[in-house]
Amino acid sequence: MHMQASLTASKSNALRGVVRVPGDKSISHRALILGALATGSTKITGLLEGEDVIATAEVLKSLGAAIEKKDDAWIVFGRGVGGLNRSVKELDFGNSGTGARLMMGVIAGQDTRASFTGDASLSGRPMGRVLTPLKLMGLQVEGSSDTLPLTLSGTKDLLPIEYELPVPSAQVKTAVLLAGLHAPGTTCVIENEPTRDHTERMLRHFGAKMTITKVNGQTRICVAGHAELTGNDVAVPGDPSSAAFLAAAALVCEGSDITIEGALVNPTRIGFYITLREMGANLKFENEREENGEPIADIHVISGPLKGVTVPAGRAPSMIDEYPILAVVAAYASGETRMEGLGELRVKESDRLASTLAGLTACGVDAQADGNVLIVRGADSVPGGGHIETHMDHRIAMAFLILGLGAQTSVSIDNASVIATSFPQFAGLMKGLGADIVETGNKPA
Ligand code: S3P
User: What's the whole-model pTM score?
Assistant: First the structure.
């Protein structure tokens, strides 16, 4: 029988402290990939050393980029746009949709054939959304499947395209822009709702020629092809999606006062924090500054009463990874919280709408899903007591441990190892703030 590590979270006293969270996952993937496509070297500090990002580093190494850790920095020796080798091994992306989808855009522009694989969660996620535009550009896909494992053949003769995103996805946008670096002419992506813009910011930082125009609510993002990128230093800010669990914990545990230093507060990523403020949270961005073209701040959270709110669908792209933890916070707020426009949650590391609802129900929270809307009714006292099925989803694992910190009865999760995909230090950091989270030995999977 396969055994998996379990964690249990129990009602905790006030959390206090000043901490940093690991580097932003999206920026970490992009720094490695653009470093590998640049000429010269790229020095990355603060890289997230989570399993997802390490998988991308390993893939880039197997395609010929030299990547090494020296003291606290990661150095990438780039191969230039179009300069990657053929890999003798399969490209294994583990749990990471970002790594797999972004690298499809890169492979599209190499004169090479590559096999993409991943774990059971990733193998169930749709790749068609990325393959559709890349096929228009000239990528060849063997077979008719749109899930991993997949074998793809790129080409030196890619065509530039103009592509309107049918779903608000930064991964799709990025895959097309990365392919566009390899094509002649100009490749443009049009988005109807703004999604995280780290690729655009970092491409500029590496010297790509970008034009970004906003017309009638649409954004048209164009990159000049046959690009020459120059290696550059990147300091990765703290991940606001990881910081979200700490901020939520401070709101769940009475008397808390915590500060998360050096977190990314890019406007395309802060929907969760805007929502917490609307719920009445005492939450401030302090010491706001800019590094490497990205805005950062120290996030200061003091616990206090919260009220339910309606979160509009238009906010979803700026907090897409934060709905499980927002639903947990909503369980502790007075009244009803309505989260609208959650269709994209169904194609994350798990069907997050279903797994969030199941976890809430297992913990005695009054919640329901109505199509793509999740409704949570908060209470003064949250029963807890659930043993949560994480479905290989790190954010479900962390969200329900936070729920346990305020609940009447402890909450445990079936598989704590998935947390390492994005936040390996999670349990240690939480304990350091005063949270009662303990390893509960191994439970049968
Ligand atoms: C990401 C984009 C989002 C997000 C994921 C990281 C990225 O996915 O959920 O964790 O780095 O571009 P979608 O683009 O599928 O919305």
Answer: 0.97
CA 316 to ligand 1 center in whole angstroms: 12
Closest atom of ligand 1 to CA, residue 196 = 12
Distance 385 CA to ligand 1 centre (A): 31
Note the residue count of the chain: 445
φ and ψ of 104, to 5 deg: -65, -40
What residues does ligand 1 touch, defined as CB less than 6 Å away? 26, 98, 169-171, 174, 196, 320-321, 344
pLDDT tens for 414-426 read 999 999 999 999 9
> Given the CA of residue 347, which atom of ligand 1 is nearest to it?
15
What is the Å distance from ligand 1's center to 169 Cα? 6
Instruction: Return the residue whose CA atom lies nearest to atom 13 of ligand 1.
Output: 169
DSSP reduced 3-state for 404: helix
Query: Which atom, in ligand 1's list, is nearest to the CA of 199?
Result: 12
Atom of ligand 1 nearest to the CA of 167: 16
Query: pLDDT for 167-186, tens place per residue?
Result: 999 999 999 999 999 999 99
- What is the strand order of the sheet 218-224 is part of? 162-164, 186-191, 218-224, 210-215
Say if residue 149 is preceded by a cis peptide, omega within 30 of 0: yes
Q: What does pLDDT average to over the chain?
A: 97
Residue 214's H or E segment, with its range, is: strand 210-215
Spatial separation of the C-alpha atoms in residues 174 and 98, rounded to whole Å: 10
Of 321, 370, 380, 414, catalytic? 321
Q: Is 321 a catalytic residue?
A: yes
pLDDT tens digit string along 380-392? 899 999 999 999 9
Closest among 152, 222, 223, 136 to 181, alpha carbons compared: 223
The pair of structure tokens assigned to 326 is 């927002």
Report how far ligand 1's centroid is from the alpha carbon of 13 (Å): 34
pLDDT digits (tens, 9 = 90+) for 15-51: 999 999 999 999 999 999 999 999 999 999 999 999 9
CB 366 within 8 A of CB 377: yes
Enumerate residues 6+ apart whose C-beta is below 8 A from 428: none
- To which residue do tokens 């550059």 refer? 232
The β-bridge relationship of strands 150-153 and 113-117 is: antiparallel
| Cβ proximity of 65 and 26 under 8 Å | no
